[in-house]
Amino acid sequence: MTGDDERTVYGVSRVVGYIKRLIAENKQLARISVRGEVSDRSDANGRIYFDLKEGADILKCVVWSNAAAKLPAFRNGDAVIVGGEFTTYPARSIYQLDVKSLELTGIGQLYARFEALRKKLEAEGLFERARKRPMPRFPRRIALISARGKGAEDFETQMRRRAPHVRIEFIETLVQGLDAPVEIAKALDRASAMDVDVIVLARGGGSYEDLFAFNEEPVVRAIVRAKHPVLTAIAHTANLHLADAAADEVRETPSLGATYFGEIRDAYARRLELLVARLDRSLREKQRLRVQRFDYVTSSFDRTARAFVNQKRQRLLVLERRLNAHTPVQRINARARALQAASSQLNVLARGFTKPSLSRVELLATKLDLYDPQRPLAQGYAMVFAGGKLIRDAGSVPVGSAVEARLARGTLLARVEGHRE
Questions:
Q1: If you average pLDDT over every residue of the chain, what do you get?
Q2: What is the Cα–Cα distance from 62 to 9, expressed in whole angstroms?
């Protein structure tokens, strides 16, 4: 070839090598780092391959095994800034970045912090179930730690509806921002010093970044050292916070946190209904047995009295026949008088015999009537229960306790305002 048509022809290997040198020796490329989103990650023989995406554009990246151990953990979807050497892969005629450094940004950076702290605290045993405190069987006073807002309002609204007997001590605190972890920890310490049964840590919904205060070490350690059981009710999110992992009880939202206390109240109400029904059955059974005993005594007395009277009547008939066998009038009259005297004596004996039995029957009837549980109720009295137990001493029931007064008709629900001798 000559003239204008003359050109140089090279083999493929020489061309791709030339392109590789152009990219590798470019000083401007050597000074830059690249920001993007990790995609299509795969691992093979200690090497890591992934795409760095921005919109529709993709930069192929590879991390060789000697550099992989020095990089922080990352996954698909993480926002990162990577640096290294730009080169080509001649076998596929593509250019790529040999990654030497990787920095997580945004959520990726937060997640790396989360994982590092989770492993540290998990190694200390702070998330072990055996360490956690049992929740009280019937809490009556709780400390609510939250910011004023939708989450706290939802919790308090549900508590008024489902568990109005529980007193809430509200401790306001920051739940978002740089100062939030320390402020939440201080609020938990204040709640620990209070006379409460449970501490509730609550907050409404938010982004991962907004809720990250509940993944910070001060909050977790404050939950662990709390003197009362801690229930967390943090946000509408599928992510498990480290505060949840350390808490003694977890609910997904503030409303569900309040529902937990309502379920306790409902369970005790059902138990009280069963106890009252059992007591009623027991009283009815005792009354039935007393009535049966009374009927038996009455029937036995009646049979004994009838047998006694029949025996005496037979004796009279024998005497009458013997009297009739003697015809003299005087003897007949004497016999008649003796018969009349015997009859009178028989009546006296009969009355003497039956009087103690009748008195005992009347006494039994009076005692049976005293055992009737409806009698004092019908006279205006009431049976008062607290915690499922019958109250006999007013001083044994603390002020503010919920009580139930059972009347002849219906039951009254009340709360103790004070004591009077």
A1: 84
A2: 32
Q: Which of 377, 369, 374, 416 is nearest to 393 (CA)?
A: 416
Residue count (the chain): 421
Q: Is 235 left (phi over 0), alpha (psi -120 to 50) or beta?
A: left
- Phi and psi torsions of 42, nearest 5°: -150, 150
SS3 content of the chain, % helix, strand, coil (to 5): 50, 20, 30
Which is the CATH superfamily of the domain at 133-252? Cobalamin-binding domain (3.40.50.280)
- The answer to whether 225 and 257 are in contact (CB under 8 A) is no
pLDDT classification of 323: cutoffs 50, 70, 90? low
Homologous superfamily in CATH for domain 3-105: Nucleic acid-binding proteins (2.40.50.140)
- Chain centroid to Cα 271, Å, comes to 15
Q: Residue type at 287?
A: Q
Q: Are 170 and 152 in contact (CB under 8 A)?
A: yes
Q: What is the identity of the amino acid at 207? A: S
The pLDDT assigned to 2 comes to 44
User: 111-146 as b/e, with b when 16 or more CB fall inside 10 Å?
Assistant: bbebeeebeebeeeebbeeeebeebeeebbbbbbbb
Find tokens 């790529």 and name the residue: 96
Q: Residue 325: pLDDT band by 50, 70, 90 thresholds?
A: low
Query: CA-to-CA distance for 121 and 158, rounded, in angstroms?
Result: 33
pLDDT tens profile 101-141: 998 876 666 777 788 888 999 999 999 999 999 999 999 99
Neighbour order of strands in the sheet with 389-390? 389-390, 383-386, 402-406, 411-415
For a pLDDT cut of 90, what percent of the chain falls above it? 31
Beta bridge partners of 339: none
Tokens representing 325? Answer: 């066998």
What is the residue extent of each domain of the chain? 3-105, 133-252, 268-372, 374-421
Q: How far lies 346's CA from each of 319, 352, 364, in Å?
A: 14, 10, 27
What is the pTM (predicted TM-score) of this model? 0.48
